[in-house]
Amino acid sequence: MTAAKSNELAAPLGILGGGQLGRMTIQAASTLGIDVVVGDFKPRSPAGRLAQGEVIFTGGWDDNEAITEIARSAPVITLENEFVDACVLEKLEGAGSTVLPTPDCVRTVQDKLKQKTAMQSAGIPVPEFRKVEHPDDLAMIGDELGWPFVLKARRDGYDGYGNRKLDHGSDPASTCEELGWPERELFVEQFVPFERELAVIVVRGRDGETINYPVVETQQDPELHICRVVIAPADIPATVAEQAEAIARQAVESVGGTGTFGVEMFLLQDGQVLVNELAPRPHNSGHYTIEGCVTSQFENHVRAVLGLPLGDPSLREGAAVMVNLLGYGGEMPGKDQFDSALSVPGVHLHNYGKDQSRYGRKMGHITACGSSTEDALDRAQRAADQIRM
């Protein structure tokens, strides 16, 4: 990839998608004096409410008129989720924009079977997996890989949606139908009895320059199967951290990534690290970097796609902890809850500005930094406990 042209820095950056990742990317871009054009479906999305440039509303990603307008407005376009089909990104390229990560990269990553195949071909350790043509295949696959195993949708799954664990007594046909088969393609992955879950944020520039943030531990909500807590750095041996960092960088390079990527991993009992999956965008496991690191994952994403030098990913203090604020489907919190949360010393509250709470929906997060993970976790959790959305 070549460096950005001067007109790309003077013009707005385009972001496809109006969620909280777009919102935080806009906040980072504004510090560099870069306006942002948002392409989204909703008039008051979290990102759209902050956009300094236009908000171009589409009736869907098949809205060719809107696609042309986005390309006209932004010479460089990135995305805040991987659910925009690669053919849409190709249309934007055809209309004259530079799209990063590239359509080919997104095409590979947004299909988890293709993603795993690309990484396996590059020698990156991943769980064993198999393509599923028909529910009748599952019994044979289970006998081959071992029971239980995980049945996954190849596309559009996130936060535990699109996954089912099957044991020997499960009904393959009904489980496949629950995940949308036959309209939705599926694949099977070996169940991994991991010791803990790790993640690494990797940023790769247009010139191939690559950096990574510290290895973090991600802790999932036991009922929702959604990330609840991120601890930076992970309490793991230095040799394991070095292994995870190297594998994460190789994984992003294997799909030709440009920009910020989240690399989710499993740490096994024997110290081996396997890649679970990639996200071709800033990632929930890296939100702590806004206050916790010299340069946030969002600023480095902007720098990367615009061809600017990448910033220092080091922690500012010894530790940082992020606690997600997950929705309960109730009313939005009032001033009293914010007062209680912000009375905890040294915490940072991020409210994503969503207009409706749903059970398990990511509504915001709390970050705390400190000399130790124990101190940061205590303060972040105490503040998060004061807010119910």
Mean pLDDT: 93
Describe the largest sheet: 9 strands, antiparallel
Poorly predicted runs of 5 or more residues? none
What is the distance, rounded to the nearest whole angstrom, between the alpha carbons of the first and last residues? 43 Å
The structural class is alpha+beta
Describe this protein's structure.
It is a single chain. This protein has helices spanning 6-10, 20-31, 64-73, 86-94, 103-110, 112-121, 137-145, 172-178, 238-254, 289-292, 297-305, 335-342, 373-384, and strands at residues 13-16, 36-40, 55-57, 76-79, 98-99, 129-132, 149-153, 163-166, 186-190, 196-204, 210-212, 216-220, 227-232, 259-267, 273-279, 319-326, 347-351, 362-370. The chain has 389 residues and is of the alpha+beta class. Strands 10, 11, 12, 13, 14, 15, 16, 17 and 18 form a nine-stranded antiparallel sheet that branches. A five-stranded parallel sheet has the order 3-2-1-4-5, with helices on both faces. A four-stranded antiparallel sheet has the order 6-9-7-8, with helices on both faces. The longest helix is centred in the middle third of the chain and has 17 residues, at 238-254. The protein is globular and about 55 Å long.
